[in-house]
Amino acid sequence: MKVYERFFIGGEWVAPAGNGTVDVVNPTTEEPAGRVPDATEADVDRAVEAARRAFDEGPWPRLSPTERAAVLTKVSDAIKADMQGMAELISTEMGSPVSWGTMGQVLAPTMIFDYYAGLASSYAFDEVRAGLLGQILVTSEPVGVVAAITPWNVPLFVAAAKLAPALVAGCTVVFKPPPETPLDAFRLAELFEEAGLPKGVLSVVPAGREVGEYLVRHPKVDKVSFTGSTVAGKKIGAICGEQLKRFSLELGGKSAAIILDDANLEETLPMLLPNALMNNGQACIAQTRILAPRDRYQEVVDALSERMAAMKVGDPLDPTVEVGPLVAERQRDRVEGYIKIGQEEGAKVAIGGGRPAGLDKGWFVEPTLFVDVDNSMRIAQEEIFGPVLAVIPYEGEDAAVAVANDSNYGLCGSVWTSDPDRGLRVARQVRTGTYMLNSPIPIDFATPFGGYKESGLGREFGPEGLELFLEQKSISLPAGYSPDL
Ligand code: NAD
After folding, report:
1. What is the CATH number of domain 256-437?
2. Fold of the CATH domain 2-251+455-475
């Protein structure tokens, strides 16, 4: 059991202002896995003050991007040196199977750190442009103090998606991880401290929603970078809108995988299924609506059923396990609630639907496949966030696109076909921020990722992800002057 008594604020491990604590419970054993202090508004005040001072007066924003990148590289190397340990820690917090988590929860964040460390030397922070009226220096400056608010499902991954570009940009950060997964966030703070990050550049204050909202409203925060539910994102966007504070939102999804009538299922399903059920179905980009041509519907259902029935459910620390428990009892209640709703709506459970036999402890739900699903049903419209898939029939390519687009969300999606030209035609018509055409890769960190519609605002990753943390300033230069950049 990992216990932290102090917060990482202003580069020091400091005693909390309040005496509340957060218990981290292992979702596999239902036993305590750790305890951390619960941040209060006073702790957030201290963290924001430290970040403000470090931004206004400290060395960090004044270092070159490559000097800042060197710290990211050290942190990335330290994570790589203990991939297994970090994967097990995250798995203990939230149940991600290490068979997926070593790559998805740990290697991926190091790739994000490395990508932004590399971008530091190639990105044009200063650019002299020939304007219409004269020479202009367009310079990109850090946006200021960043509040980074993250969810529990891919905790280190989302932290990296915010901290890496924010820090390369020269921002200072108050990082508020969720109460479910504070342990890996504190581990990350230790790694930044060991890597020599100047004091105040990063503070880590785990807390719940109310204190999170206090951080969002804080007048000394310049920018909010949020990943989480659409409900919370709307609230945060409204607060930031009132204050004209910069903000970016990565929110929920209900992505559709379109299986075209010419798809080869033997090739498709090994790429599609891991993307549909990744992280025990607790993934924003999960392909949870499977759109099957009506004349191949039964074939698709049979092939999916066979593979899902064979998936190993159990202890996520067992490297052969593919599906672990849900993060918390309330999350299992939510998922089981949706399974009931789906049946009440008239959909049928082809596989799963209950709790796996032989697992008396832990918040497990069987991989569940719903058939005879209409896209208007709640199980096809709402984010369930568990190992539950819905197979929806369609007739004709245009109908498939229409069903895929009939969603408030627009985060990810995929198309599977033996004709890539046809697939690309479909990909261009689906209104989502990322898309897979016969590809198992939902996100490439060198390219933008984010949501259309209620799935978000702004794009993380790629140069676009850095630009979320930059302000552009145009400086008109005198004739004949050539700045030394
Ligand atoms: P959540 O919205 O309940 O919480 C996310 C974070 O926001 C937590 O740290 C929480 O404490 C904080 N929070 C909640 N309400 C807040 C408010 N009003 N003000 C300030 N902070 C607030 O989401 P969750 O259940 O932790 O995470 C699951 C959700 O995250 C799913 O909807 C999933 O799709 C989404 N998600 C999206 C992406 C993406 O990149 N688009 C990635 C991962 C998860």
Report:
1. 3.40.309.10
2. Aldehyde Dehydrogenase; Chain A, domain 1 (3.40.605)
